[in-house]
Amino acid sequence: MNTSTATAAGNGGTTTPLRGKRILVAKPGLDGHDIGAKVVALALRNAGAEVIYTGLRKSPQQIARVAVDEGVDAVGLSILSGSHRELVRQVVECLRAEDAADIAVFVGGTVPQEDHADLAALGVRGIYTSDQPLAEVIAALAAALG
Amino acid sequence: MNDTLTRRELGRRLSRLADASVAEVLALAPAAPSTVPRIGLTGAPGVGKSSLAGRLGLLRAQARRVGMLAVDPSSPVSGGAILGDRIRLDELAGAENLYLRSIASRSSSDGLAENLPELLETLAAAGFDELVLETVGVGQAEHAVRSQVDTLALVLMPGSGDTVQAMKAGMMELADLYVINKCELPGAQQLAAEIQRVQALVGSHGGWAAPVVLTSIHDADTITDLSAAIDAHQAWLVDSGNREAVLEQRARYRLRLLLERRLGEVLDTVSPQALDGSLAEQFASVAAALPLDDGTP
Amino acid sequence: MSSPTPKPRLGTHTMAGLEVPLRAGPELVDPGRIGEPGAMPFTRGIFADGYQGRLWTIRQYSGFGTAEDTNARYRFLLEQGQTGLSVALDLPTQCGYDPVDPMARPEVGKVGVSLSNLAEMEILFDGIDLGAISTSFTINGTAAIIYAMYLATADKLGVPREKLTGTIQNDILKEYVARGTWIFPVRPSMRLIADSILFANQATPRFNPISIAGAHVRDAGATAIEEMAYTLANGLAYVDELERRGGDIAKFARRLSFFFYVHQDFFEEIAKFRAGRRLWAKLLSERYGVTDEKALMFRFGVVCGGSSLVAPQPLNNIVRVTVETMAAVFGGAQSIFTCAYDEAFQIPTETSAEIALRTQQILAYESGIGRSVDALGGSYVVEHLTNQMEDGIAAVMQEIDDYGGVEKAIEDGWLQMRIAERALERKQKVDRGDTVIVGQNFFARDDSERGVGETFQVDPNAAARVLEKYERIRDTRDAAAAERTLAALGRAAASDDENLMPYLVDCCHAYVTVGEMVERMKAQWGEFQEPVRL
Fold first, then answer.
1. CATH code for position A119
2. Per the CB < 8 Å rule, is A39 touching C423?
3. Would you say residue A4 lies in a domain?
4. A29–C106 C-beta distance less than 8 A
5. How far apart are CA A84 and CA A115, in angstroms?
């Protein structure tokens, strides 16, 4: 998955490259570590995005429902419990069922390198980890969302 | 949901409208204004509006399809926003009948969200039986929200002494209901008494004496009380014939907002040459640019 | 990723912002504040003979997949010299869901062992003498249930309850703000905790029924000062609840223990532990009038690692854990858990778990740093920082008091918001290069490996086996007994006067499942509604 060193300057030097984008940050499943999700949500807001954070313990159905009703451009799933494959698959399926396969899905958390290809095959557009600088994550998102 | 828009399509339509130019609005927004009842909840940050609105929405969704719109402030620095900082009651009973959309205030002229009247009209046209609008009541926004709803509830909490001052400064005429949330905190009764005192001085508007309702999200009965007070006001509006005036004010405000936005669009793109010449010439130049060409965004 | 242009600097302040003097001298030390090891105010340690009297417990965290797999790993570690067992449970067990629940299904056996009913725990401890080994359970929302299950297991094995040693974490307050395995609202959760502590004081006097944790808020982003402050504040909240329930503080305070992370700032961590120990003793004696010295002793365990470990160049983490373990020893910890170097990105392999264990053994038996009690006591830097820490901690505790106390702060989402803001600050400091992470924002290599050695795989069939066993138990148990004990539990939960522990033990003996017990309590108490505030 893309972990390039694209800088914010690649977006025309703007400090709010996500202006006008609506992004859902979600915690699927039972994983209770929400600090990464919250930090990313705040950073996305600082980059100009309109962000909705779901809170903990949301089912894939709930996440898809909120994504659709809120008309978001992207869903960021934060998963640190190791269950990313099943949970991502379920969310993608629920989005498809709601006619929302065009909503971009991203994943953050603890995803080992060997699972990247499978997630990409499910349609995940980017996978991010906590050691990446926030500016890098934002630039990658902005590039992916156009 | 209604026959013409699926939930997904509704979501997309609302997103488009939130960003739409005046020309797009004229093309997309439902032409005929809706008459489904609208409830507004406004108040300062921190009074627990969101939790209250969520529970109220859920209660009313037991008996009808409720569309909720919640406005959160955009950051003046980044233009971004954290929206929907609220408890998601999605999985509770009746939630299928509840639709929640969160919008950012952005930099709209009236302190509310861009194209808010259009968003509300779209929701109404999508088949909801009732709309609930939740906004942060700061400054002009409180006045702006008045025309968008039939029943406006001002939410307060004990200990915020300055709200009563603000009320004296002009909010009294606007609210149909005073809600003292977090009523389990000390000072709730005193605040209720103070409101009633100020009301006595200022008098009621149009013959409706705005009641004070005490609520707590920990006590479901208080939410029922709030819902009943709303029902009472809705009934009064219809019976007293005042609803017509409300709808007319709304239509005027909607038009004014669109025209102001169109003016803004023109002024943003007007050429420097148009600003030469006398004031009358400048005025005429801008006025001439106002009409929309077919298909021009 | 290439390094940013700024060069790494030593810095002049600790990570929490305490100024570190360039040249510290005797003028910074206030001998009156220090005292002697094993005596009030316990700055230098709770035991006069330190580690000579009793070495810290070397405790490693394990548990994954099925009870059978975990049992095998435990026997391996016990053979290698580990002296206590630490049980990690999977998220469904922690959050009170049975493995069949759709929310639970993807998470069964992933981050720990699945223990949905007594039969699973019997397998877990097969061949292990519960009377001789100390067992620590990292369990919170369902702590009372797992403790009940442990008692039931001991009952069935004929081990007298008085012999049982170990810990249940059982610290719900930090769950709400930093770990997320809450179930019920705050008040009924506090009731359940008081039930378990008061019961344990009688039934299992050698068992620690609570381990009040600062580790998780630290991991989430709090500074060392805040970590200790939030923990002590939570501790006092539990003390208040126990007193309200008629508990004798001189008795229950002896069995309160604490649990922290150790991060990389060496002297800050040592000062944190010394200050916390001193402040706790002062608070209990001044605010609650406790005079029994045993009840004033601040006993704590630590985790070395956590969020201080990173994925790039993972072998560096061995060094980090070593430095942190040294800080724990100089800080006087009673038990130490060392993270494996690959903890940052997977469940540890046998190799990495072994190195983590050896780290402690080398420090204990080769380095000699534990020979004297509080060997760094009297050091100008350490005493100065200890004083600064104590003042800082007390100030944060005052802020919480001013807000209205921890329970209110949690219900309002105020503490959670503070932690999130702090976490963002911390991340921004790393991104800017103000905080150095070797191998990540400095001294990184584009070709840095992000993981070495064996990648540990959770058995994909584990979940299926767990479900199979679950169904079998549900089919073969005495259904009448299960229903009877559940009904009794429900009635007891509805009453304010009952201690739920005996009812939970009865349920366990009847092979009632964790999910069934939780549902019954949820029906009575409701579920915690998370205040989402950013």
1. 3.40.50.280
2. yes
3. no
4. yes
5. 9
Q: Is A4 on the interface with B (CB under 8 A)?
A: no
Place of tokens 């009794």: C488
C453 Cβ under 8 Å from any chain A Cβ = no
Please tell me if residue C444 touches chain A, with a CB cutoff of 8 Å: no
Write down the pTM of the prediction.
0.90
| A47 shares contact with chain B (CB less than 8 Å) | yes
Chain C residues in contact with A82 by the CB 8 A cut-off are 110-111, 347, 458
C97 touches chain A (CB under 8 A): yes
The ipTM estimated for the assembled molecules is: 0.88
CB contact under 8 A, B100 and A51: no
- Assign a CATH topology to domain B7-241: Rossmann fold (3.40.50)
State the residue range of the domain holding A131.
19-145
Q: What is the 3-state secondary structure (H, E, C) of C59-104?
A: EEEECCECHHHHHHHHHHHHHCCCCEEEEEECHHHHHCCCCCCCCC
CATH superfamily for C26-432 is Methylmalonyl-CoA mutase (3.20.20.240)
Could you state, in chain order, the average pLDDT of each consecutive group of 10 residues for chain B (297 residues)?
74 90 88 89 85 90 92 86 70 72 77 83 92 78 80 88 64 81 90 84 76 92 96 94 89 89 88 84 88 64
A32 lies in a domain?
yes
Q: Is A59 on the interface with C (CB under 8 A)?
A: yes
Token pair listed for A130: 């906590």
Hey, where are the domains in chain C?
Answer: 26-432, 469-525
Q: Which of A43, A55, A81 sits opposite C91 (nearest CB)?
A: A81
Question: Which chain C residues contact residue B86 at CB under 8 A?
Answer: 532
What is the tens place of the pLDDT at every residue in C179-224? 999 999 999 999 999 999 999 999 999 999 999 999 999 989 899 9
Alpha-carbon gap: A117 to the closest alpha carbon of chain B (Å): 29
Of B11, B77, B82, the CB nearest to A71: B11
Q: What is the DSSP letter of B173?
A: T
User: Number of folded domains in chain A?
Assistant: 1
Task: Return the H-helix or E-strand segment holding B243.
Answer: helix B243-269
CA distance C167 to B202: 64
Q: Alpha helices of A47-115 — where are they, by DSSP H? A: 60-69, 84-97
Asked if the peptide bond before residue C41 counts as cis, ω within 30 degrees of 0, the response is yes
One-character DSSP codes across C27-61: GG--HHHH--TTSTT-TT-S-TTHHHHSPPEEEEE
User: For residues C296 and C251, is the Cβ–Cβ distance under 8 A?
Assistant: no
